[in-house]
Every structure is written in structure tokens, then in C-alpha cells.
Amino acid sequence: LIGCISAIFSCAPLQRQYFAEDFIDSVDVSNPEEINALIATLRDSLSIKMDPSLHRRLAVYYRLLGTPSSRRISIDEIDKAILHSPDDPMNHVEKGLTLYAMQFNGDARRSFERAARLDPGCFHAWYHLARMKKAEYLKNMCFAVDNEEAIALYKKALNVYDTHEDTLFNLGLLHIFRRMYDTAGKYASKALLLYPDNPRH
Predict the structure, then answer these.
(1) Rounded-to-integer distance, Cα 170 and Cα 177, Å
(2) Rounded Cα–Cα distance for residues 185 and 187 (Å)
């Protein structure tokens, strides 16, 4: 019986829960049938005209399906976008997001860093680098340097987009772990002023 159960789970596709932060643009669909319909529509458009932005959007939808095979296709699609528009930082950000969803953290980090080099004002590059470093710190909270690096990256993101809610929240949170309560309070106060309906602030 145990062997049968193990076999069933070993055949099931590995899926990682996705979060709103995993997507640059808001994604309003989660039903696989709807996503596949959108994919088919984009593929029809690509058969008529080559457009890197369509490949990038395809990469997003394949990532949203959340299976190992769909994420591999997502990488293929974003690589096509990069091939045609290698200097567009958002293509590299999208690739980093898919790699991060696949838990290829080193490759994901390099993609975000590439985006930041192409455009130091790319908010999404700094923000997702900060998310990765924060997650690394929260695994065991043993290395204060990880917290400091996450804060530095979130500050770079905030310099580009100074009212971003999640960035403000995380700067407050990470300063609490450093016992810098006054600084944490300043970020929380700004977030509360801008987003009074969110109780976490």
C-alpha cells in the first residue's frame, strides 16, 4: 500500500504555489482551460507576426500553469523574446521569475542582475533580487548579513518606486529583525498613510 501511494505521488507533477509577486502584470486567470485558450490565441498571433512581447506574455501564461513541463516551455518562450530583444531588461526579469518558480535560484539571480545592469532604474530587478535575499535570510535567520543585503536591495527598489506597498512593508519588517524599531516604524507609518486599509501595516 505504501509503495502504491509513493508511486502515485512520484507521478504527480511537482507544483509550486504562486504568489501575486511572481508576476509583473496582474494575472486575472487561474483556470487551466482559460490559460490554455489564451496561449492558443497568442500562438495564432505569433503565426501572423513575430513580436517579442508576445513571446514574453506566453512565458507568463506557461509559468502560470505551474507544472514542470509548462515552466520549461516558459523558459523557451522567454529565450525567444531575449533573442529578438536582448537589451530589454523586462525579458530578463521574466526569465528570472520562471527560473525562481523552478527553484533554480542561482540562475534566477543572474537574470535579475542582468536586468539591473541593463537598466539600473529597473524596479522589478531590484525588487525580485530583494525578495530572493529576504527568503534566503528567513530560512534560518542565522546570518545578519543576508538581512542587511535584503534591506539594501529593497532600498534600491524603493529609490525607483517610493510608494510600492510590499517594498515598504518588507523594509519595516526587516528592520524589526535588526531591532531598529524607529526605522521600522517610519516605513510602517508611510505604508499606513498610503495604504490605510491594509491591517499588516
Answers:
(1) 11
(2) 5
